[in-house]
Amino acid sequence: MSDIITTVGLSKQYGKILRVKDLDLKVPEGVVYGFLGPNGAGKSTTMKMILGLVRPTAGTVTVLGKQVNNRNRLAILKSIGSLIESPSYYGHLTGTENLRIICSLKGVPETDINRVLKTVRLENQQEKKVSQYSTGMKQRLGLACALVGKPKLLILDEPTNGLDPAGIQEMRELICSLPQQYGITVMVSSHLLSEIDQIATNVGIISRGELVFQDSLTTLHQKSSTSLAIRTQNNTAAAQILTKQNIYCQAQDNYLLLPKLSDDELAGNISRLIAQNIGVIRIEERHKSLEDIFLELTGTAVSL
What we know:
Strand order of the largest sheet: 7-8-9-4-10-11
Helix content: 25-40%
CATH topology of the largest domain: Rossmann fold
């Protein structure tokens, strides 16, 4: 699987503030790539640099196998659809009329309008003025505008912002359908871990402008593991005994943290400690959630 977006050392500095620092992104083709991070982490700035809307201070951006520069940026953008921050539209015009303008700007036949309206489920609202649309309908119209011309890559910046629960669910379903049904790679940003967990197959986590995790969502889930915590009368001696049994121990707050063991393994090791006159005071099973992982990686509270 090739990468549809690659950045190397991508950085952006405003004055003395480094908003994005040495970002090495790899977005595989045919996936929903969740770009996750707290508000102000640098997500929107990064997406704008990928689209050529903001000039990087340092580093390179490669999209669809071509390094983005001033000479080829417009040609590359013809294969990209985007929705950054909030959708733009003419409120006094209908949904169809807004899409006609987009088709004209992109040089795409107006026959594409029916396709994108059906994709975002607005075909029954196309003749209504956009000023009369709900927030969710306006967001779907923005997505329809991004889909005009059958882009290979779609870049969406917090597309569920301001939507009610029904609208959020609709947008999730739309995003998830795009790679399989239409062959579109989607890069979608969010500050909500629960959001990315439900739509993405791959994830990059950014904190204070730096990439702190990038891999499949499955790999991130594997970090969300179960461990054991035991407290004894002599943790130092207990750790030595357990280490001899090839059990890795980590001391933390008067406890020893152990990997998950089977019942038989745990019982056998507790017996070894007692046989050495080391009393076991407490045994706990601890679960590290995705929220805990996010907090460890970013050092900030996660929105849920």
